[in-house]
Amino acid sequence: MAKRSAHKANKRNGSSKEAPPQLKRGQPTKDKNNNSKKDNLRRNAPPPLSLEEERAAYRDMLLIRRFEEKAGQLYGMGLIGGFCHLYIGQEAVVVGMQMTIEEGDQVITSYRDHGHMLACGMDPKGVMAELTGRRSGYSKGKGGSMHMFSLEKGFYGGHGIVGAQVPLGTGLAFANRYRGDGRVSLTYFGDGAANQGQVYESFNMAKLWNLPVVYIIENNKYAMGTEISRASSTTDLSQRGLSFGIPGEQVDGMDVRAVKAAGEMAVARARAGEGPYILEMLTYRYRGHSMSDPAKYRSREEVQKVREEQDPIERVRRRLIAAGESEEVLKAIDKEVRAIVNEAAAFAQSDPEPDPSELTTDVYAEA
Ligand SMILES: Cc1ncc(C[n+]2csc(CCOP(=O)(O)OP(=O)(O)O)c2C)c(N)n1
Ligand SMILES: [Mg+2]
Q1: Helix or strand or coil: residue 214?
Q2: In this structure, which ligand is nearest to the CA of 282?
């Protein structure tokens, strides 16, 4: 989907019930061991979205949520093979960021990629059919969950090697700079990937040439079964670019408004030639790392608490209701989204498998 035009702040939306936390940026807080620490989370309330923007964000996040739930079901029925990493819980990150970019900008991410594809406007039928390995899938049924691509929609994959997309996303930004086309690369990666060496080689080059790239670290607190503080010597990932001169900040990645506000600033900087920026999105995945993860490393209560208190879709829903949106309008959005997802699931089961003659196509290049 293309960038949505910014609307004037809707007054009714401003009357959100969520009290803005009082802490200022950089003010000491306590960590889980009750030690004082500084963080770089902007704690003043983000600017409100217009009613139209809230509605669109609600719809786009719900589409991702329902799509992922359906993918989980199809996986459980044995209709999806291989790896399948769901994005449930993290929807506000990609939807908020997508509101800040324009047609022609690029998006690249890891294997947790279905949400990014849908947010880029890729066809849910083509994505679901790829998951079930059918011929109308985005990679003709030969790539699966982690390997889809759409030049038309500016989506550059889907990468299964942790951190591999970071040099690639930096390369996209290098091409933008080389061509002088004003485009920006949104390069997403996880908290675990943030410890990869290639990330820092990329940071160095990105700052050296002031490339138009925004690094979005989706800190969902876990890398497979490892909680971030067990694997990372420093856990404020927004500061990981400092030794290269890349500024960054932490963002409430469960609030689409905060994501959009931070994203707009970072994208504008990059487009204006001011170079890379790091946005560490504080988010959470509700499901296991992949469909085969029983998630024994954390308690049900921990997950339940985030769902109840921070769910990104529920937060927008509450704001919409407080702004006077009718239940009928929300129900109509739910219905539309369910219909899209059901249609995609039906298609993904009826579409034929690839012809055996496709076994060697797109695998070897003609020499
Ligand atoms: C180079 C490499 N090392 C290890 C793996 C195995 N692996 C797959 S996902 C993953 C965890 C990555 O976590 P994070 O970057 O936080 O992303 P998330 O899964 O939370 O989205 C690991 C270690 C891999 N795919 N590639
Ligand atoms: Mg992670």
Answers
A1: strand
A2: 2
Residue 281: give its domain's CATH number. 3.40.50.970
User: For residue 226, what are the β-bridge partners?
Assistant: 223
Please report whether residue 200 resides in a domain: yes
Whether residue 24 is contained in a domain is answered as no
Q: How many CB atoms lie within 10 A of CB 269?
A: 18
| Number of domains forming the structure of the chain | 1
Q: Which amino acid, residue 83?
A: F
Ligand 1 atom nearest to CA at 289 = 19
- Please indicate, yes or no, if residue 269 is contained in any of the structural domains: yes
Locate 291 and state its tokens: 């469909």
Which ligand number lies closest to the CA of residue 93?
A: 1
Q: pLDDT digit string (tens) for 265-311? A: 999 999 999 999 999 999 999 999 999 998 899 999 999 999 999 99
- pTM of this prediction? 0.90
| Residue span of the structural domain in which 282 resides | 49-348
d(CA 120, CA 29): 36
Radius of gyration in angstroms for the set of CA atoms belonging to the chain, rounded to a whole number: 20
189 phi-psi bin (left φ>0, alpha ψ -120 to 50, beta other): beta
